[in-house]
């Protein structure tokens, strides 16, 4: 599948907000957005009047980039959310949070969603005792996500239990730091999803 291979810091600059795509680096002085908080390109610093459509588009692009999804994949997710009962925008965000790569990131097993995606595709993550290498797979309440036993001897996972013990994870998850695993206690509520997204703008965009 195609994927974005350019400098990810350009995405933060384009959206005008930190998307925290590179883990700890985003909190350091090395963050490109902290140095150049304007859009990339020749006309990045020029001020332009943004239309209503432009505002809605930027919100959708922001969400897509935060969760590391391509356009078709994101739109398909929206269509599924639209068919569910409840508020479409909230359904969409909850579905995005349920993605396996996002869950691995939220549990603290990876520093970023892109790193979490790599861990999943390389077979380091198991769900309910079985290896699952599909980052877009949606977890369910009661699912147990853990590090593959065969992978725990790798340098990346050594000492992770101590690091995880200091992590604060979302309330809808239960972390077992010692065993490098976590359980999905329930689905998150909108108030528990801490992403800078105005989901109603995405709904308005796709409803045109």
From TrEMBL:
<dbReference type="GO" id="GO:0042274">
    <property type="term" value="P:ribosomal small subunit biogenesis"/>
</dbReference>
<feature type="domain" description="RNA-binding S4">
    <location>
        <begin position="98"/>
        <end position="158"/>
    </location>
</feature>
<dbReference type="InterPro" id="IPR005709">
    <property type="entry name" value="Ribosomal_uS4_bac-type"/>
</dbReference>
<keyword id="KW-0694">RNA-binding</keyword>
<comment type="function">
    <text>With S5 and S12 plays an important role in translational accuracy.</text>
</comment>
<dbReference type="GO" id="GO:0006412">
    <property type="term" value="P:translation"/>
</dbReference>
<keyword id="KW-0687">Ribonucleoprotein</keyword>
<dbReference type="Pfam" id="PF01479">
    <property type="entry name" value="S4"/>
</dbReference>
<dbReference type="GO" id="GO:0015935">
    <property type="term" value="C:small ribosomal subunit"/>
</dbReference>
<dbReference type="Pfam" id="PF00163">
    <property type="entry name" value="Ribosomal_S4"/>
</dbReference>
<dbReference type="InterPro" id="IPR036986">
    <property type="entry name" value="S4_RNA-bd_sf"/>
</dbReference>
<dbReference type="InterPro" id="IPR001912">
    <property type="entry name" value="Ribosomal_uS4_N"/>
</dbReference>
<comment type="similarity">
    <text>Belongs to the universal ribosomal protein uS4 family.</text>
</comment>
<dbReference type="InterPro" id="IPR018079">
    <property type="entry name" value="Ribosomal_uS4_CS"/>
</dbReference>
<comment type="function">
    <text>One of the primary rRNA binding proteins, it binds directly to 16S rRNA where it nucleates assembly of the body of the 30S subunit.</text>
</comment>
<keyword id="KW-0689">Ribosomal protein</keyword>
<protein>
    <recommendedName>
        <fullName>Small ribosomal subunit protein uS4</fullName>
    </recommendedName>
</protein>
<feature type="domain" description="Small ribosomal subunit protein uS4 N-terminal">
    <location>
        <begin position="3"/>
        <end position="97"/>
    </location>
</feature>
<dbReference type="GO" id="GO:0019843">
    <property type="term" value="F:rRNA binding"/>
</dbReference>
<comment type="subunit">
    <text>Part of the 30S ribosomal subunit. Contacts protein S5. The interaction surface between S4 and S5 is involved in control of translational fidelity.</text>
</comment>
<keyword id="KW-0699">rRNA-binding</keyword>
<dbReference type="InterPro" id="IPR002942">
    <property type="entry name" value="S4_RNA-bd"/>
</dbReference>
<dbReference type="InterPro" id="IPR022801">
    <property type="entry name" value="Ribosomal_uS4"/>
</dbReference>
<dbReference type="GO" id="GO:0003735">
    <property type="term" value="F:structural constituent of ribosome"/>
</dbReference>
């Amino acid at each position: 599948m195609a994927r974005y291979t350019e400098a990810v810091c350009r995405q933060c600059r384009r959206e005008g907000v930190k998307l925290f795509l590179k883990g700890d680096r985003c909190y350091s002085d090395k963050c490109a957005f902290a140095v150049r908080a304007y859009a990339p390109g020749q006309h990045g610093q020029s001020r332009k009047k943004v239309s209503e459509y432009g505002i809605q588009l930027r919100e959708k692009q922001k969400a897509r980039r935060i969760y590391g999804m391509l356009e078709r994949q994101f739109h398909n997710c929206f269509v599924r959310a639209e068919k569910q009962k409840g508020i479409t925008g909230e359904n969409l965000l909850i579905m995005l949070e349920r993605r396996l790569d996002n869950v691995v990131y939220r549990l603290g097993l990876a520093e970023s969603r892109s790193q979490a995606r790599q861990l999943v595709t390389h077979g380091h993550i198991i769900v309910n005792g079985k290896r699952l290498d599909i980052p877009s797979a949606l977890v369910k309440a009661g699912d147990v996500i853990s590090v593959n036993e065969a992978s725990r001897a790798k340098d990346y996972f050594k000492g992770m239990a101590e690091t995880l013990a200091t992590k604060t994870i979302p309330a809808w998850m239960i972390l077992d730091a010692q065993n490098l695993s976590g359980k999905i206690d329930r689905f998150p509520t909108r108030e528990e999803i801490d992403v800078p997204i105005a989901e109603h703008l995405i709904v308005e965009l796709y409803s045109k």
